[in-house]
């Protein structure tokens, strides 16, 4: 087993951890500043959000690789079902394809998918998951042609009304089974999955070769806001070592992507301090 | 099958739906006023909270039965694990026994248990569930002697840090299996369980004879506060008819207990209007 106490090559930064540079949060760093700061600290990769890339995907991807890192992924496809979709079916699919194209231009091997919530007018999640499966199936060939894998991320059940209709890894794997294309897998996020006591068994039984991302943060026992109060690793109750053992036991050997949405705490700190903390916590706790 | 469109005998009110008479919410109705208002509307039962009963348990229980209804249950035992427990082990067990005694004095056949969250200093939920199982096991004989069954209620994973270490019906049944006493079962609450796509199968496979309560409300798609923004039946995305079919297919024939915590909406309305709405929604949607 690798000695993770010294090795940060598996560590990737999801740029949301630095506050998205929106609403006065974060330091307003450019992608180039983030790249340099992560390279200096030994990060192995970066995951960007589409809003940060604009029309500079090729340039930014090359900049990351020139700094000795990889673009580990891109966040994210648009909501594919539920009340928060971005328009009619044609608009949703066009934005989905645009996200795939951006991932390809960046050189990101993985695009993260979040499902979106319950379709207006329906009850429960079944109809919404059928709609979701249909839209993924219709984009999967285009993604394959671009060399992009799609990572469906189950979200915490608290988002079950508006943001997700896929709440567990088991449900995400069910959906992968239903769509049945080789470039669709799952992302396992500590925040969304830490509570699921069946997770190690589900991963061992069903996830081999299908885990496309592992996202690190923590669940604060006194979570004050379910969207923007995630904990840094160690600040909460998730069993981080057990979760990593479970994803790696299922064959995952990709990056550990730190993604902390924290409007009241980490987003208010200097980015350099946040990155130093990420490295230290990763080395000692993850 | 009963004609539920006319029959409200299965309908029980959890008094929390009227605002608990605390913090300026609700109408400040006495237990007697609640009893009369529910009897007049054809409710079959009532579920009280301990704070409303004080030392009047026998008197209030008799008053409910004189009005032609049953005391369907009592909320609730103290947190049995995690950061919100009420003191040391002796204090927790004393309060647990006091809650059992109050249920017996009321003539309530069921006491609701919520587990409490993650034990301070531990990670994940395993240690906390062992602590919980131990405390339930140590109180179960006393409850049996009082004729009181214990209904362990899995809570929504959003409460996983501080209020629960049992997030799903399957986990609650696992814990019942571990404790293995005849007077321990589960409560199924729409708010906590609506999102779980495995629920019908889990209930069919494992819950026969073990469902001691079914709690009605709804999950609002735009839930604004995870503690006090529950929806009235019909205001959200839960598939209420499918959930009731699932609990009844597993043999449950007890009351449907309406429990709506709604500080910003229903608790601000006149209690008579709330009760009328409960009856109408139950008849048409549940």
TrEMBL record, chains A, B:
Annotated Xylose isomerase-like TIM barrel domain residues: 35-270
SUPFAM superfamilies: Xylose isomerase-like
Classification lineage: Bacteria, Pseudomonadati, Pseudomonadota, Alphaproteobacteria, Rhodobacterales
Matches recorded under Pfam families: AP_endonuc_2
InterPro entries given in the database record: IolE/XylAMocC-like (IPR050312), Xyl_isomerase-like_sf (IPR036237), Xyl_isomerase-like_TIM-brl (IPR013022)
Species this chain originates from: Salipiger marinus
Molecular function via GO: isomerase activity
Keywords on record: Isomerase
Listed name of the protein: Sugar phosphate isomerase/epimerase
């Amino acid at each position: 087993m690798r000695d993770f106490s010294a090795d940060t090559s598996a560590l990737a930064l999801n740029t949301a951890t630095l506050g998205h540079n929106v609403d006065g949060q974060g330091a307003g760093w450019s992608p180039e500043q983030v790249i340099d700061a992560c390279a200096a600290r030994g990060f192995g990769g970066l995951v960007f959000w589409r809003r940060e890339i604009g029309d500079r995907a090729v340039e930014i991807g090359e900049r990351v690789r020139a700094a000795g890192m990889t673009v580990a992924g891109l966040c994210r496809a648009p909501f594919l079902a539920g009340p928060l979709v971005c328009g009619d079916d044609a608009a949703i699919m066009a934005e989905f394809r645009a996200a795939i194209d951006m991932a390809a231009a960046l050189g990101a091997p993985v695009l993260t998918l979040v499902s979106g919530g319950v379709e207006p007018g329906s009850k429960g999640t079944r109809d919404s998951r059928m709609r979701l499966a249909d839209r993924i199936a219709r984009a999967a060939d285009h993604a394959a042609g671009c060399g992009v894998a799609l990572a469906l991320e189950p979200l915490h059940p608290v988002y079950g009304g508006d943001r997700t209709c896929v709440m567990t890894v088991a449900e995400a794997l069910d959906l992968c089974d239903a769509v049945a294309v080789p470039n669709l897998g799952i992302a396992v996020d500590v925040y969304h999955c830490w509570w699921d006591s069946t997770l190690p068994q589900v991963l061992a039984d069903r996830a081999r070769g299908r885990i496309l991302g592992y996202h690190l943060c923590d669940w604060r026992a006194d979570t004050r806001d379910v969207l923007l109060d995630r904990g840094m690793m160690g600040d909460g109750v998730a069993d981080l070592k057990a979760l990593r053992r479970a994803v790696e036991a299922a064959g995952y050997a990709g990056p550990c992507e730190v993604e902390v949405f924290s409007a009241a705490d980490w987003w208010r700190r200097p980015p350099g301090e946040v990155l130093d903390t990420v490295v230290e916590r990763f080395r000692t706790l993850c």
